[in-house]
Design a protein that fits this description.
This protein is of the alpha/beta class. The protein is about 40% helix and about 20% strand. The protein has five helices and five strands, in the order βαβαβαβαβα.
Length: about 120
Amino acid sequence: MKFLVVDDSAVDRHLLTSILEGLGHQVDACESAVGTLERILSGNYQAVFLDIVMPEQDGYKFLRELRSNDRTAKQHVIICSSKKTPVEVNYGVNRAGANDYITKPATAESVSQALQKVA
């Protein structure tokens, strides 16, 4: 499978990319949500791993943009964030429209569990 990691933190981006590649997947990475919509339109990704706290455009704003575009509305999105409270996780999935939510630092186990839900 092919995935896209969107995270402004080089450390977190590298960790998630390494986990996914270690599980045998192809991975592209972006350090910002700016310009990422076009990449998703042409990339044919099974899922996008999306950070919330990023400069220029946060993950929630990007997710709204993604969901409002007919061509990307059904894209599977997994939020990967340091925001860990039940309220924040609930908001990410039930209000913001993410398909799943994992907290940082990502682990092979948390990523594998999230991938089981990817159609």
